[in-house]
Amino acid sequence: MFRRVKSKLLRFLLIAIYSLIILVCAAQLNFLWLFGYSPTKRDIVMPTLNVSSELYTADSVLIGRYFEEDRDPVAYDSISENILNALIATEDVRFYKHNGIDFIGLFSSAISTLKGDRRGASTITQQLAKNLYRTRYNKSQGLLGKIPVVRIGITKFKEWMTAYKLESKYSKSEIVTMYLNTVSFSNNAYGIKSAAIRYFNKHPKNLRPTEAAVLVGMLKGTTLYNPIRNPKTSLARRNVVLGQMQKEGYISNGQFESYSKEPLNLNLNNIEERSNNDSYLRSAVAKWLEKWSEENDIDIHTAGLKIYTTIDSRMQKIAEDVVALQMKELQRRLDNTWRNEIPWRDKSGNILPGFLEDKARKLPLFASLMETHKSEEVVFDLLNKPKKMRVFTWDGDEEVEMSTMDSLKHYITMLNTGLMAMDPYSGKIKVWVGGINHRYYKFDHVNQAKRQAGSTFKPFVYLTALESGMAPCDTYEDKPVRLDFVNKKGEKEVWEPKNADWSFSHRNMSLRWAMARSLNTITAQITRDVGWDKIVETAHRCGITSHLESVPSVGLGSNDVSVFEMVNAYATFMNAGKRSEPILVSKIYNSDGKLIASFEPASKQVIDPQDAWLMTYMLRGTIEEPGGTSQALWEWDLFRENNQIGGKTGTSSDYVDGWYMGITKDLVAGVWVGCDEQSIHFKGSHNGEGSKTALPIYALFMEELYKHPELGVTFGEYPKATVEITKKFNCPSPRIVIPAPVDSTMMQEDLELFPEEEIPLPETIETEF
């Protein structure tokens, strides 16, 4: 066909044009898989970004993000002119004069390269094409991409085509905005807004010329010119950018002279906030949304969602402050309890041999050192060598001289806690404190950790008694009790529980009084009469979801449960017998601001309203009855305006776990305190009971909360019963002098039902050498 053309010049020109058309078509169609992926028309029309999702409290406070790339796109009019001027002056001075490919720039770059001055010729639009469509990633390369020199040519050609398509679809302002929203600025900052906040704690609209020059200068090499890691090179690069701005007329000579003498003036105050992004609450919400994300095929890390939790930021702050204050004091007490003694002990009080060494063997560092040195003796010598490190303390992170083994001991001997509070009627979770510090202890002690509930489980025994026909005024004698039973192995066993103080009063006591004093003997008698299988069923019906071993000791809290379950179950009492599944997320909006999901709790009547009301009355007995185990609450300012509080303390064997469950007319809350390692605990009741560990956290939390009635938690009496109360419940106990209450289930060794749960080691034990 081309031979018919007489003119050689025209013939070669036609061949070149036809070849170009064929190349374009072949590249677009990925002919024979030679060229790899090229953006389609739809991709060009609707380019997508991985946009971080934002997590808010119910009162619209931003508390975290989910991202693969921490990106928050901004509009053109939200970008400072200084940024635009610095970018164009440095990266693409002819940006407004080309259609995506700057042929003059290409020619100039080629001449400069021949002279030994290598300069890039990619336009801003080409760089946008590369960022948006990953044209240089392996998955974008075809078979020809395996040939080194050809690969570069094909990649460049596809970037040219994509740049031209972008220019044909978008205005210059849209292109430069998309570019600034896609580029990486290191330190997990993607896009100009994240970068402006990360390095200068400003929005991009407010950046000065010097600040804009720092960020634009980073685009040449985000590591080399990182102002945090390499401030000297960053400063030099900033001045190069300022020089370009002066050359192109964006700043005057005088301004250049003045600006180039300024220091970097970084403002990194926001880095600490960003580093704390990974919180207990953020992790809990991510887990909460796993099923929803899967069902709706939405990745919360890239979809740019606005996720609203049920958490009240003000209540959350009060809870976190109280936990920090009280846990610092409790840690001091635990440290004083053991002083220079080794704290990890078995049930008989004997030191556990090789305990710390076994924990060290589970560290990733240990396995790494063993690969190198092949000898445990050598590895432990290294682990015992002191070195400088930073460790978490309640006085802040401290720089100390400590070995890895000392660091390990430091972290595993720290008390931890879990606190959750919810509205019992709506099911909305208001407070979620998963532990003392998420950076160091990732394990969530609200929902992940399960520990023996101790006496906080006893209300399910008394509820079962009410459901069997008993009334709060029915009586049992506080006397020794013996239960004969057959275990799962078919073996006969005898259980003879003792009260926490190892005494028996031989008084006849009402159910309300007995529960208030948390007497193991009467709880055991009721268990015998109603059946332990029935108690298990009752607990599950109220909201306990963990497996419960059906044994005579079930009512004394021998099973492991979570704070989350216990709060849910106690809320059922206050909600007139309706169990409302707790919710942590209320609404989700997409990136366009459209509501795409809302969540309401499923509610089901699981207890007769009369029995539910009677249970709230009986829980008040722990404060009102003689010797009630919650009477320590009178030490706090909690009982104005006839305020009514019900609650239950709990302490597991050997003071390993301390609990407090509290209910008011507006809020149900649960607190657990203990060490993750169950072999480390207080020695006695004076410091180790739930009334001494968990109850003060609850009391301080409520006391502070009552100072802020605008948060919706106020003094007042419980709601009136919604049904007629036909059972006798008003039977005042005799006003007798009773020693300070002791509340511990004190389970015998032969009834230890479950092995110690394996808890992940703290996340930041010093491991560097």
UniProtKB/TrEMBL annotation:
It comes from Sphingobacterium paludis. It holds the Pfam family Transgly. InterPro entries: Beta-lactam/transpept-like, Glyco_trans_51, Glycosyltr_51/Transpeptidase, Lysozyme-like_dom_sf, PBP_transglycosylase, PCN-bd_Tpept. Residues 63-246 form the Glycosyl transferase family domain. SUPFAM superfamilies: beta-lactamase/transpeptidase-like, Lysozyme-like. The keyword Transmembrane helix applies. One of its GO terms (biological process) is regulation of cell shape. It is found in: Cell membrane. In the C-terminal section; belongs to the transpeptidase family. In the N-terminal section; belongs to the glycosyltransferase 51 family. The lineage of its organism: Bacteria, Pseudomonadati, Bacteroidota, Sphingobacteriia, Sphingobacteriales. The chain crosses the membrane at residues 12-35. Keywords: Carboxypeptidase, Cell membrane, Cell shape, Cell wall biogenesis/degradation, Glycosyltransferase, Hydrolase, Membrane, Multifunctional enzyme, Peptidoglycan synthesis, Protease, Transferase, Transmembrane, Transmembrane helix. GO terms for cellular component: outer membrane-bounded periplasmic space; plasma membrane. Pathway: Cell wall biogenesis; peptidoglycan biosynthesis. Residues 419-664 form the Penicillin-binding protein transpeptidase domain. Signal peptide: none annotated. It catalyses: Preferential cleavage: (Ac)2-L-Lys-D-Ala-|-D-Ala. Also transpeptidation of peptidyl-alanyl moieties that are N-acyl substituents of D-alanine; [GlcNAc-(1->4)-Mur2Ac(oyl-L-Ala-gamma-D-Glu-L-Lys-D-Ala-D-Ala)](n)-di-trans,octa-cis-undecaprenyl diphosphate + beta-D-GlcNAc-(1->4)-Mur2Ac(oyl-L-Ala-gamma-D-Glu-L-Lys-D-Ala-D-Ala)-di-trans,octa-cis-undecaprenyl diphosphate = [GlcNAc-(1->4)-Mur2Ac(oyl-L-Ala-gamma-D-Glu-L-Lys-D-Ala-D-Ala)](n+1)-di-trans,octa-cis-undecaprenyl diphosphate + di-trans,octa-cis-undecaprenyl diphosphate + H(+). The keyword Cell wall biogenesis/degradation applies. GO terms for molecular function: penicillin binding; peptidoglycan glycosyltransferase activity; serine-type D-Ala-D-Ala carboxypeptidase activity. Gene3D superfamilies: Biosynthetic peptidoglycan transglycosylase-like, DD-peptidase/beta-lactamase superfamily. This is Penicillin-binding protein 1A.
